[in-house]
């Protein structure tokens, strides 16, 4: 389980662009970083994680759902935040250009000569186009087009939510209890996929999840990514109870002796890996359903006998 590397990288860019990072809280404006995003696409992943990470770093980011309450005037609050911010982050996504507010915010940031860091999430710059819906004025359309072109020609980041490290963030939100949500998900799932990596065994959560899947008798498909099965070892850090260490060791040995997939991120073919992993998941799901069917049938026969 990892915090998103993309969120960390964006934060590093913001730190680089900040000219007065040591300014006292009393002197700092109400908003350091304005996060421009399309809520339905990125509020629960990139934008939400970035907001939380910036807060953790001690900045004052602005995210509409976090900084405004029912009854607040949208334009008033957003416009003030943009004028007072130092840095802007524009998270572009497939439905970004469908939103008047997204384009208005972007155009205002550009007009205010703010530094804007673009993040292209699940969308290519060339796919972003301002649409004339017949309602927006020509003046606004021109403003939006200019701002969009400026952003598309600014060095930024690209991110694919299907292949990126946003996994827990898809099903959990800040404040959720890790163990409660993860344990319920494991108990209710049909198939598990364990993606082993060089630092996998450094994580208590990873080993806990693996052990629980094995204890629940779930089918687990191992993927050994940049690591050999023989290189995976449970480490005694002196903090973990002996009972847990034994559980983790048993689960790890069982996974290492299960037929799985191997992948080298430097030389491997990502589409091929995704195809192989998907095929393995589908095959195992069919087998689980078949087992459930025959078990149900057997119980029914025993009942009538």
From TrEMBL:
GO terms for biological process: signal transduction. InterPro entries: TIR_dom, Toll_tir_struct_dom_sf. Residues 29-186 form the TIR domain. SUPFAM superfamilies: Toll/Interleukin receptor TIR domain. This is TIR domain-containing protein.
């Amino acid at each position: 389980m990892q915090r998103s590397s993309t969120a960390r990288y964006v934060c590093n860019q913001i730190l680089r662009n900040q000219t007065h990072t040591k300014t006292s809280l009393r002197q700092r404006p109400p908003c350091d970083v304005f996060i421009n995003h399309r809520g339905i696409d990125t509020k629960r992943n990139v934008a939400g994680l970035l907001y939380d990470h910036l807060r953790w770093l001690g900045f004052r980011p602005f995210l509409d759902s976090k900084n405004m309450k029912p009854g607040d005037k949208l334009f008033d609050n957003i416009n003030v935040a943009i004028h007072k911010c130092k840095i802007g982050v524009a998270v572009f996504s497939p439905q970004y250009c469908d939103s008047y507010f997204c384009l208005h915010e972007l155009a205002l940031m550009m007009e205010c000569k703010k530094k804007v860091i673009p993040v292209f999430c699940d969308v290519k710059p060339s796919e972003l186009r301002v649409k004339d819906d017949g309602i927006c004025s020509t003046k606004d359309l021109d403003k939006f087009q200019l701002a969009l072109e400026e952003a598309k020609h600014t060095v930024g980041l690209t991110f694919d939510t299907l292949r990126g490290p946003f996994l827990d963030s898809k099903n959990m939100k800040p404040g959720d209890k890790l163990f409660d949500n993860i344990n319920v998900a494991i108990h209710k799932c049909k198939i598990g996929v364990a993606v082993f990596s060089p630092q996998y065994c450094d994580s208590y959560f990873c080993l806990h999840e693996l052990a629980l899947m094995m204890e629940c008798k779930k089918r687990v498909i191992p993927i050994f990514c940049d690591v050999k099965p023989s290189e995976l070892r449970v480490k005694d850090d002196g903090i973990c109870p002996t009972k847990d260490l034994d559980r983790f060791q048993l689960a790890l040995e069982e996974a290492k002796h299960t037929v799985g997939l191997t992948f080298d991120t430097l030389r491997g073919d990502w589409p091929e890996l995704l195809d192989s992993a998907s095929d393995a998941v589908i095959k195992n799901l069919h087998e689980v359903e078949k087992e459930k069917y025959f078990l149900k049938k057997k119980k029914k026969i025993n009942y009538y006998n």
